Amino acid sequence: xxxxxxxxxxxxxxxxxxxxxxxxxxxxxxxxxxxxxxxxxxxxxxxxxxxxxxxxxxxxxxxxxxxxxxxxxxxxxxxxxxxxxxxxxxxxxxxxxxxxxxxxxxxxxxxxxxxxxxxxxxxxxxxxxxxxxxxxxxxxxxxxxxxxxxxxxxxxxxxxxxxxxxxxxxxxxxxxxxxxxxxxxxxxxxxxxxxxxxxxxxxxxxxxxxxxxxxxxxxxxxxxxxxxxxxxxxxxxxxxxx
Length: 242
Hints:
Number of domains: 1
Distance between the termini: 52 Å
């Protein structure tokens, strides 16, 4: 007698399969609902800048202040500021934008160990699925501004670089703030990725490193000076298929 015979599953195999299929169908509908709700809510926020950085950075830290000042300048210059809605750099970005002239946008994620939402959100959208949230960061971004952070921050940077490199999203400024923090990673890109042919030398031009908040704003305006902030027809098509 097998273990399966001694301890049969309470549901017959065919019923188990149908139950799983039903749950999966409902999950797909939930994913669709997140995309629809977020797209409707965020449709009017352009031009917008997506901010990333560590959730562990405390108020009073130089990175927190750097993020807050940069977000305030961007907000006053007419950019909505999008962050992950949590503490640390996300809070600093939302706070700076909230105190400025343009909307402070938060894409909050529901986590097993619940992320505490910050208090500086003019527009809020909650997500259950990480990948749906990540699409929205890219879909509505005119630029990426990235402060020092950990695995999550690196994940967002690498995804943005990959999407731009492969033409799966439109080209945009990807700005790393505070050069000393990023120096080792960028040196490794050059000495290993480029030298071993894993990326092209031109791919290094996809990212900029800037230290001063006003210089971040100026770099974004310089990039769009001759082409405008609105996506072209071809870029809109790319974003529809993101």
